[in-house]
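Below is how a single chain appears once it has passed through the pipeline. First comes the sequence as given, then the structure the pipeline wrote out for it. We keep one example in the README because the format questions we get most often are answered faster by looking than by reading.
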Amino acid sequence: MINYSVTAKPNPRDKDASYKYYASPQVTLNVSMSDFCRHISDHNSKYNRADIHAVLTQAVDCMREMLLDGKKIMLGDLGSFQIGLNSTGTLTADDFNPAIHIKNVKVNWSPGADFLDLKESAEWNLVANRRAQRLLLKAVTNGDSTVDIGKEDEDVVEDA
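Resulting structure:
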C-alpha cells in the first residue's frame, strides 16, 4: 500500500503561475540494511541474513569501483547503473576543466522490467500531508480540540 498526500506546489518555471496540487509519497517506514537482509532471508532463502548482508555490501563496493572505472552495470530485472555528470558549460572545449566545471558525479539507475511500471501493482492510501500532521501533533500536544489546517502560515509549500 502506497501512502500519499496531495500538496500544493508552485510551477518552478513560472513563479507567477497558480499553485497546482500534486501527489507526494509518504514513507511509512525506513528499512535498514539489516532489516532488508532479514526480509530477504525470511522469504524461504537458503542464505541467512549475514550472508545476504555480506553479498550486498560487496556488491556496493564492486559497483562503486566499476562505476568509477566508467563501466555500465546491467543487473537484469533490477536494471542498469551508470555514471551521470552535472557540469557547467564553457565557450570552447579547450576551456573545459573537469576539476572546475564538473559539479557533481551521480549514479543513474535505469529500471529493469520488474520496476518499469509499479503503478499497475500499486494500491493507494490518501493520508494527511506533513504540514497537517505537524499541526495536528502540535494541537494534541497543546490540548487543543480543533485544528485549522487551512490557515496560512510559513509552511505554504509543503514538503513531501
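The first strand starts at residue 2 and ends at 9.

See the next section for the split statistics.
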